[in-house]
Amino acid sequence: MTKNAVVIGAGLAGIQVSQQLTDLGITIHLIEKEPIIGGLSTYLGRVFPTGDCALCLDASNEMYDGHHRKCQYRGLVTEKKNLKLYTQSEVKSITEADSGFKISIKSEPRYVNLDRCVVCLECIDVCDVEVADEYALRGGTRKAIYRPIPQGVPHAPLIDLEHCTKCGKCVDVCKVNAIDLEEKESSKTINTDAVIIATGVEEKIPLDFPGYEYRTSDDIISHAELARMLDPTGDTNGVVTTSAGDVVSKVTMVLCVGSRDKTAFEYCSQACCTYSLKHAEMLRELGIDVTICYMDIRVPNHSFHYLESSIEKGVKFIRGKPDKVVVRSGKPVTVVEDTQSQKLMQIESDLVVLASPLAPLGIGNDPVSAFLGEYGFAQRVVKERKVYACGTATGPTDIPTSIAEANAVALRVYSDLKGGI
Amino acid sequence: MKKLFLCTCNKTLNKWLDLERIQKEIGSTFESVKVHDALCLEEGLAFLDSEVSKDDAIVIGACTSQIIGVPLERRLKTEQVSFVPIREHVAWVHKEDKKSATNKAIILLQDGAIHVNHMEPKTAVDLQIEKKILVVGGGLAGLKVASDLVQLGVEVTLLEPPEFNKDDYVEKNQFMADSSTLKDTVNGLLATSKGAKKLNGTVTSLSGRAGLFSVIIKLDDGKEMDLLVGAIVVATHTEQSAPSLAKTSLYGKSENSVLISELATLASNKSGKTILVAQDPTYHESDAEGSYLLREVTQAAEKGNTVIVAHFNIYTKDENLYRKARESGVIFVRGTLEKVDKKKDQFVCRLENTLESQVREFTVDYIVLQPERKPWSGTRKLANTLDLNLDQSGFIKTRYSKMKPVQTSKRGIFIAGNAKTPMNLNDALASASNASLEVFKNIIAEGERKGWIPVIDEEQCDLCEACVNACPNDALRRDEDLIKHVPMNCEFCGICVSACPTRAIEFQSHKKDSWLARIEAIGANHKKLEGKKPFTLVYACSECANASIDQAGFTGKGYPTGTYVLQFPCAGMVSPIEILKGLVEGAEQVIVAHCPPGGCHHQTGDHLSELVVKFTQDMLTSIGQDPSRIKATYMIAALPNKMQEEVAHRG
Questions:
Q1: By the 8 A CB rule, do B314 and B279 touch?
Q2: Does one domain contain both B161 and B103?
């Protein structure tokens, strides 16, 4: 009998483990709470260690003969025969049954039928409603019917019914009858042999770390927000600006904001040093002055070239964790003791970028949180032959490590379910 | 019959394209022209079912083949299909100029008509795979790969280095985890890998191809054996190098100056001593080594010693190790060990940090050095034998560091664990299972791979072996007086075509004459429809560059009309001849667009296309022509503005 597994979370690790298992003949139900797949990678633009696209997937045997990686938009996930993707869906309950689990999920309506939409984008053109775009930082807007990002998969737009006026213009222009404003949420129960948790992490919005004034100033931002500004498809067209709209010339970065800190997040988030260096390098290429305040620089060997090239490109490093970032005459000022020169420094800049912790997303989800351990992260094998986890759900890390772990877990699931040749 | 199918994409493309004029002007090129409003939907596919027979050659003018290609290829009865992305490459990027956009669509559809004329069926490559695996071990990951595959029912030979014994798995890997976890893991793996055949020896030669390698192994007793295997996993261990601080710290001169691997023994015999532990300042340490350092110094401190760590960056994935070390009383001092003076039985150590104003001195009983972990000493020789590339530190290099963590430059050979870089136990086990998975997928693969392959004209070939050297996948080989193609190794990239100086290699569906005919037709048709308006040719690779151009459409990053994209399997297939032909036909500019540096899907296409363009520029310069008319550049989907930037705006 065909074995099947439920993968929770369609970020890079969730997609990877799903593709590998479908290649091995296991049917996968891939459950994603967002309207598009990709998870954190949808925010990142370009990623380390290769400096190319975040929205890149390792290819699968079925689709492209295994040896090529492909962009997400090229249909790898949506066209696979034994992979069923559920977007805007959340796991409501996980109950043990017979040899496996019964998993009930609830799906929010997209109001656009994936099997009917041809992605002509006419509906978006005619929509009159403009609301703030979640992917934009400097006032960019989107319509009430929208595609979150250009490469977003599934390609079909979705409707934000909260802001939709139900004027019906989109329904009228859609001659292929893909739009149904009356679509209802749906529930489904899946019987499965195994569960794989790939719920990933999010960059914690540094709202409540004392001293950093993130709430006060829009010129004190997080790295995911900086990545949106550096993205040529973002609302600033790749130009890094202040909240007043001026082009930035000086940036200060603060590492370990709320991390490695017993009063906040105890652990090290692993990836922030490297993405700070990556962003520092990209900012230097735009001629922007960059200073990084750090405790330790932790860069894995496969990304070490970022440290070398940041130094080469003139990024300034100050060893010291800032006491605070304050706003003076409208500009953020970083107050830091340089532990090497033992001087107290006050660095005024146009923008301060905080590397805040990568926090587990599984923790807010009731049925999933039961399987999590210390700090809200899971073990690779949570429950022998039944529950597994991979990617950043097992702890913050970078893409190569996540992918390697997803592959390892795929093999484990396969051998547990199928046993071998 | 040659047929054209146009899709209006829910009757929207006619806003930017004059579809009636297209039908009228292009009608004579095809036996039939049909228009549909939604070719990608079930009704569109059903329409194609009824309209297309298996002998037809068809051109589809619709959205990008990257979206419509997969469902269509599954459904269409014919393999002779050319896709023209009139949505992403035309309508969506030329919204301001309907007339010229329509002209461009006509020119590209005519190009599709020529392309489809040259289309040949794909060649099927049988997957003949030997279902046996060789693991070149020594590292703990090797044991894990052997264990994984044995559990899955695969026949595994585990080749351990000469004189290696099972205790070495613990002995040589102390840095990977705390000793009890390490011992338990090794004992577990020794038990579960029992079904593997274990040998001691070295690989002395490799022949054959992916799926069927012939490996010669020299055994410890001097005998040689020949092994046929389908895939190879290299999972070697690491070694401690000589410490860079040896001279300063009197290592080798004083028995109280030792290496970190000896700290545990030292601390178990002594307490109440002062020990200085110094990191190697010349070396970027991995998290595995950082964690090891923290575990060892914690233990030494817990035994009642005063431990000072001279460091500048300790990298660990487990913050709790750091905390434990501090709690156990370890003193962390930032700085490099600059000078050591012997004073009776003690050392006076001077720590300096060039940026720090003060110099610190410590008087200690022992100095402990953490040297760099380098690859197993046989790595270079093994890599030469197996034809693998090494990275800067001498470890085996992966094919693509982001998403191919265990693949090497050679198809069918994988790496695991410390063969790649020093890894902690957890990461090494994941890396090993990842390699096991890739191997296992190869082994159970059934059926065939399909693709267009190079065909060598024996008459024209002068056996210069340029193609043999250029092929990034070892798919072309000299066999006496012939160059032979090894289909199992081939990735269908066409790099061999541009490498061949006698033009003796033809690539199926992309014959040299077909490029010339297509370029000529684009030039002629452009002149017919657009007169003297300048035009640009973009020779884009079918991976990253093509995706970037598709995304230019999705993001509305428009560029001038009169920009024609020709899709090459890989930018490395482009030779100076196609570039010069473009200029001869009147192109103002020829752009070769490839994957990002180091990111070519076939490994070398990005680099080769840059070389070809540089070479062609030099030729232009030497005859007094403007070399800036041609350029090579990378394009990726995350930078959909690249087309806009690269194709200069003209009046």
A1: yes
A2: no
Q: Do residues B359 and B380 share a domain?
A: no
Q: Does residue B214 sit in the same domain as residue B302? A: no
Please tell me whether residues B531 and B495 are part of one structural domain. Answer: no
Entry pTM:
0.96
Q: Which DSSP string corresponds to A59-89?
A: --HHHHTTT--EEGGGSTTTS-TTEEEE-SE
Amino acid identity for residue B115 in this structure: H
Whether A40 contacts A200, CB under 8 Å: yes
> Considering only residues 317 to 336 of chain B, which have any Cβ-Cβ distance to chain A shorter than 8 Å?
317, 319-320, 322, 334
Contact B152 A420 (CB under 8 A): yes
Which residue is it, tokens 């070490």?
A304
Cβ-Cβ contacts under 8 Å, B399 against chain A: none
pLDDT per residue of chain A (421 residues) written in tens, 0 to 9: 789 999 999 999 999 999 999 999 999 999 999 999 999 999 999 999 999 999 999 877 766 665 678 999 987 888 888 999 999 999 999 999 878 999 999 999 999 999 999 999 999 999 999 999 999 999 999 999 999 999 999 999 999 999 999 999 999 999 999 999 999 999 999 999 999 999 999 999 888 888 899 999 999 999 999 999 999 999 999 999 999 999 999 999 999 999 998 888 999 999 999 999 999 999 999 999 999 999 989 999 889 999 999 999 999 999 999 989 999 999 999 999 988 778 899 999 999 999 999 999 988 778 999 999 999 999 999 999 999 999 999 999 999 999 999 999 999 999 999 887 7
- Partners of A270 on chain B (C-beta within 8 Å) are 317
Query: φ, ψ for residue B360 (rounded to 5)?
Result: -110, 145
Beta strands B331-334; B336-343: pairing state: unpaired
Determine, for residues A75 and B433 on separate chains, whether the beta-carbon distance falls below 8 Å.
no
Q: 10 Å Cβ neighbour count for B337?
A: 23
Pair (B631, B523) in one structural domain: yes
DSSP one-letter string for B569-607: S-GGG--HHHHHHHHHTT-SEEEEEEPPTT--TTSSHHH
Phi, psi of B169 (to 5 degrees): -60, -35
Query: What contacts 24+ positions apart, CB below 8 Å, involve B147-150?
Result: B147/B189, B147/B192, B147/B193, B147/B196, B148/A411, B148/A415, B148/B432, B148/B433, B148/B436, B148/B440, B149/B196, B149/B436, B149/B439, B149/B440, B150/B192, B150/B193, B150/B194, B150/B195, B150/B196
Residues in chain A with CB shorter than 8 Å from the CB of B404 are 58, 69
SS3 A228: helix
Distance from CA of A162 to the nearest CA of B (A): 25
The one-letter amino acid code at B16 reads W
Contacts of A266 in chain B (CB under 8 A): 319-320
Q: Read off φ and ψ for residue B214, nearest 5 degrees.
A: -110, 120
Paired with B213 in beta bridges are B208, B229
Distance (Å, rounded) from C-alpha A126 to C-alpha A144?
10
Residues A366-378 as b/e (b if ≥16 CB within 10 A, e otherwise) read ebbeebbeeebbb
CA separation for the pair A376, A269 (Å, rounded): 13
> What are residue A353's DSSP bridge partners?
A221, A253
Residue the block writes with tokens 């049954």: A97
| Structural domains of chain B, count | 5
User: What residue numbers bound the domain in which B515 lies?
Assistant: 510-651
User: Do B4 and B58 fall within a single domain?
Assistant: yes
Q: Specify whether the CB–CB gap between A361 and A202 falls below 8 A.
A: yes
Please calculate the CA angle A79-A82-A86 and round it to the nearest 5 degrees. 70
Task: Confirm if B321 and B298 have CB atoms less than 8 A apart.
Answer: yes
Q: Which of residues 537-566 of B touch A (CB under 8 A)?
A: 543-544, 547, 550-551, 554-555, 557
Burial class (CB in 10 A: 0-12, 13-18, 19+), A398: buried
